[in-house]
């Protein structure tokens, strides 16, 4: 905490630089490219772990039956470079764990990864038959102009209580939220009250053009990493929890309420498991009745493990739940944008 206070002057400088950059885009000095295709951006201001991927998957489920979709992502920490169209040979290493997770769950949509989103868009337009683009983690990548911008905020980390790097966890000042058309406050408790909702709305200080929705993370039924019969349910005397995500506390809390967690293996976000990691995990599981439970995002990186380990590995899928009975209102907001900007709408 003391170190972060000492770093605050650098946060002022960093915040000033990001503000100047945004002003240059707003003034048209730095150019953002527009496209004649519906383009939805899902991003954040707080670094890591706000729940962008569950929201992206929610949007895919909502729209994939009506439009030919493509996910455009940076492919963070992938072991390849440049713009790349995923195919059946793609892995978490070649396109990144989150894009690979989406590709595995939704093989009927295209997935493109590119550090430079303009290059990714050019690939999409020339090599795929895409009617709608979802651009992941691109709130600060302003060279591509989205038609609808969704900002995801972590309920546990309010913007007004944070500041930019390095003293805080913001990628830019909180004033950047003005660019969002829709704000999603994610990871809210299921018993989120009307009073707390009103408190958030007051502190967010949204514009008249913005809409705010509140969502929770819903944990699903445990699934085996290796394909097993549906009749083979999860069973364990002891659980080893493994998480390599930015904010693992919610996942770990969920497991602690349901199982006897005897050990926690915590790794950095997007961690690539080494041979020594695999040896350690195998040793941890070398006991009868003990299994490993991990996150859905981590599970795609465990696929490279030996089958002897994978047969003891399970993961917990998650989905987004829109609160206050506003699911239809939220979905209509998304559908109306796409319909009004689509060539086949």
Could you give the topology of this structure?
Elements lengths: L1 H5 L1 H19 L12 E5 L8 H12 L5 E5 L10 E2 L6 H4 L1 H9 L4 E4 L3 H11 L4 E5 L11 E7 L27 E5 L7 H11 L6 E9 L3 E2 L13 E6 L5 H10 L2 E6 L8 H10 L5 E6 H4 L7 H4 L2 E4 L1 E5 L4 H14 L5
Parallel strand pairs: 1-5, 1-6, 2-4, 2-5, 6-7, 7-8, 10-11, 10-12, 12-13
Antiparallel strand pairs: 3-4, 8-14, 9-13
Give the key terms:
345 residues; alpha/beta; Rossmann fold; 9-stranded mixed beta sheet; 5-stranded mixed beta sheet; 12 helices; 33% helix; 21% strand
Short description:
With about 350 residues, this protein is an alpha/beta fold. About 35% of the residues lie in helices and about 20% in strands. It has helices at about 1-5, 10-25, 50-65, 90-95, 95-105, 115-125, 195-205, 250-260, 275-285, 295-300, 305-310, 325-340; strands spanning about 40-45, 70-75, 85, 110-115, 130-135, 150-155, 180-185, 210-220, 225, 240-245, 260-265, 290-295, 315, 320.
């Amino acid at each position: 905490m003391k170190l972060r206070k000492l770093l605050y002057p650098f946060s002022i400088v960093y915040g000033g630089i990001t503000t100047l950059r945004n002003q240059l885009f707003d003034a048209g000095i730095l150019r953002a490219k527009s496209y004649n295709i519906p383009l939805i951006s899902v991003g954040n201001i707080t670094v890591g772990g706000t729940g962008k991927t569950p929201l992206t998957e929610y949007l895919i489920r909502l729209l994939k039956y009506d439009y030919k979709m493509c996910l455009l992502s940076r492919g963070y920490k992938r072991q390849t470079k440049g713009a790349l169209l995923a195919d059946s040979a793609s892995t978490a290493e070649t396109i990144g764990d989150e894009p690979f997770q989406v590709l595995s769950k939704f093989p009927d949509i295209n997935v493109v990864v590119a550090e430079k989103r303009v290059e990714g868009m050019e690939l999409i337009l020339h090599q795929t038959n895409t009617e709608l683009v979802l651009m992941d983690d691109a709130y600060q990548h302003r060279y591509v102009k989205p038609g609808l911008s969704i900002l995801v905020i972590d309920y546990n980390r309010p913007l007004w209580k944070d500041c930019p790097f390095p003293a805080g966890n913001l990628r830019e000042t909180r004033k950047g939220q003005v660019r969002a058309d829709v704000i999603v406050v994610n990871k809210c408790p299921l018993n989120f009250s009307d009073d707390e909702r009103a408190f958030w709305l007051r502190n967010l200080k949204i514009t008249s053009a913005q809409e705010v929705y509140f969502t929770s993370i819903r944990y699903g039924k445990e699934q085996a990493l290796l394909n097993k019969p549906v009749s083979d349910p999860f069973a364990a005397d002891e659980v080893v929890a493994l998480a390599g995500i930015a904010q693992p506390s919610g996942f770990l809390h969920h497991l602690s309420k349901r199982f006897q967690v005897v050990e926690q293996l915590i790794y950095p976000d997007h961690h690539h498991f080494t041979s020594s990691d695999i040896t350690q995990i195998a040793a941890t599981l070398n006991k009868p009745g003990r299994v490993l439970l991990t996150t859905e995002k981590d599970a795609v990186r465990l696929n490279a493990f030996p089958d002897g380990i994978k047969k003891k590995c399970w993961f917990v899928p998650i989905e987004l739940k829109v609160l206050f009975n506003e699911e239809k209102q939220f979905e209509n907001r998304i559908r109306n944008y796409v319909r009004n900007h689509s060539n086949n709408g």
